[in-house]
Write a structure and sequence with these properties.
alpha+beta, four-stranded mixed sheet, 11 strands
Length: 555
């Protein structure tokens, strides 16, 4: 608890330092004195979004990761904020090698029996882990990725604080609910917990390598499972240059354009054929080796796309390159996006204008060659943000990956043409020969499910009768006119009570009248006679009322 309180104080201190004291005061009125920004930290020219980015960097790894993941939520956040979040750099001061050594000894028994050398200076240092080059006893060069000590506890504490702050923000600033702060934090918490398990990342890399085992020019580092744990990964070390360094690629004797096209088609295969794709394709995670292979690194974030979702994304891309607004709307709804009926027509108009502004109107023989995919996706996400549509994370991750891969392609070759590269691939996927197997499988599964339901009917009926006989059958009734039933029961109970009262009067009065006259006062006898008479009259009226009502109902 002390750690969380101390962390709260650090977060408030940093946010106040970057000029967010007024907001903090509204969120926590009278709780603490929030200081003003320190001179030099927030220049006058800084925008509020730039200060948010700087504050996230100062707050450490959890908040940097949160900002990086939120940079994909272009359908929710303003474009100016997205641009700042994209600048977040996942770097950190290296931890001392003595701590690295301790982690290795805790995770790899007899570490000196397996490694002949581990370089003390890291080749990369990020917020969650850092990488050291090492050599196995047989001379094999490997990369050792070590998780920073204490990082799981810090992230767990920060997530709790983020969740409470998000709830507080929605309460104090109701206008922010459209951005769904609590939902953002929940999505982030789900993702970051996965990244903390290095064995999961290693499994992702292994699976990707199997998917590409027969694809030339694409390489994934080999995992040394005997040394890999939730806190340490040992993998093949591959030397090369960043994929966006066109000059270095050319100096190695390779054509940058060819590298870009190969990487683009690798992602098309991941998404549309495998349904399992690398989710963070920034240039720091993509290398070109000396052998000319594209090497993929860092599989903490991966995307999964089931077959039916792949078809929806194919339809969405077809809609984008063919100006098909209706297909685009159906594809978006297939991803679970709910479009209000009153928004459909104005949204159609906005999408129609967007497509014709950026695709040349489709009057070209190769109309998609003029399609500025990056601008179209930006306009599409801006449209979704304007209509406050809740977009699932998997769709935003898909669009982000496409944008990042396209950006790398343009860096390698400014003339890189999205339409030219993607259209033949989509046409191949749309070929009935390629999809017949998938559709046949889905149709056969539907038929089997229907047959199973038919064959299960006798068993289900027998089960229902058995439960009914043992008293364990539960029947749920939804009746709009249940109130009428209650009123009828109330009337029936009133009549029953009146009948009991009348019966009691008759019996009691009869007993009084039948007694000897000299045994009771005269007044009591007259009261009994009056009660008896009233009971008889009420009885005759009740009989008449029942007979009359039944006669009317029979008619």
């Amino acid at each position: 608890m002390v750690t969380r309180i101390r962390r709260y104080a650090q977060i408030i201190d940093v946010l106040g330092n970057y000029g967010f004291s007024i907001g903090l005061e509204k969120m926590f009125p009278g709780k603490a004195g929030f200081r003003l920004p320190t001179s030099g930290k927030t220049p006058d020219s800084s925008t509020v979004y730039e200060r948010i980015r700087l504050a996230l960097e100062d707050l450490g790894p959890t908040f940097v990761k949160f900002g990086q993941i939120m940079s994909t939520r272009t359908e929710l956040l303003p474009p100016e904020m997205i641009e700042q979040l994209k600048k977040l750099q996942d770097h950190a001061k290296p931890i001392p090698f003595s701590e690295v050594r301790t982690i290795l000894e805790d995770n790899i028994p007899d570490v000196d029996d397996h490694f002949c050398e581990i370089e003390e200076t890291p080749v990369a240092s990020a917020s969650i882990g850092q990488v050291h080059r090492a050599f196995l006893k047989d001379g094999t060069m490997v990369a050792v990725k070590v998780q920073r000590p204490g990082i799981p506890e810090l992230i767990e504490t920060d997530i709790g604080i983020l969740q409470s702050m998000a709830e507080r923000i929605e309460t104090v600033f109701p206008e922010t609910r459209v951005y769904n702060p609590t939902g953002m934090v929940d999505d982030f918490a789900h993702q970051i917990v996965k990244e903390l398990d290095f064995t999961r990342e290693a499994r992702n890399m292994d699976r990707m390598a199997r998917n590409f085992h027969d694809v030339p020019g694409i390489h994934f580092p080999k995992i040394y499972w005997e040394f890999t744990t939730p806190h340490v990964i040992v993998m093949e070390f591959i030397e090369g240059v960043r994929i966006d360094n066109a000059e270095a690629i050319a100096e190695m004797g390779y054509v940058p354009h060819d590298i870009g096209v190969r990487g683009f088609h690798a992602y098309l295969k991941m998404i549309f054929e495998d349904g399992f794709f690398h989710g963070d394709p920034h240039p720091g995670n993509l290398f070109v080796s000396k052998a000319g292979d594209i090497v993929f690194l860092d599989f903490g974030i991966v995307g999964i796309l089931r077959p039916e979702k792949r078809q929806l994304f194919i339809n969405l891309l077809f809609a984008l390159v063919n100006d098909d607004i209706e297909l685009m709307l159906r594809s978006l709804e297939g991803f679970g996006i709910v479009i209000a009926e009153e928004d459909r027509e104005p949204m159609r108009d906005d999408l129609y204008l967007m497509m014709h502004d950026f695709s040349g109107g489709g009057g070209d023989d190769d109309g998609v060659s003029h399609l500025n995919f990056g601008v179209v996706v930006s306009e599409l996400t801006e449209t979704m943000r304007r209509y406050r549509l809740k977009v699932p994370m998997n769709l935003m991750l898909l669009l982000k990956v496409f944008m990042m891969v396209l950006d790398v392609g343009v860096r390698l070759d400014p003339k890189f043409n999205f339409g030219k590269e993607v259209t033949p691939y989509l046409s191949k996927l749309a070929d009935t020969n390629n999809f017949s197997a998938a559709y046949l499988k889905r149709a056969s599964m539907t038929l089997l499910e229907a047959a199973d339901a038919l064959f299960d009917m006798p068993r289900n009926l027998n089960l229902m009768l058995r439960r009914l006989s043992t008293g364990t059958f539960k029947l749920e009734i939804v009746e709009n006119d249940i109130q009428k039933l209650q009123m009828a029961l109330d009337k029936a109970s009133d009549k029953l009570m009146m009948a009991l009262v009348v019966a009691a009067l008759v019996v009691g009065s009869s007993m009084v009248i039948s007694a000897q006259p000299n045994q009771l006062p005269e007044q009591i006898i007259w009261i009994a006679i009056a009660g008896y008479t009233a009971a008889v009259l009420v009885g005759f009226y009740a009989i008449y009322h029942v007979i009359f009502l039944r006669f009317r109902m029979d008619r």
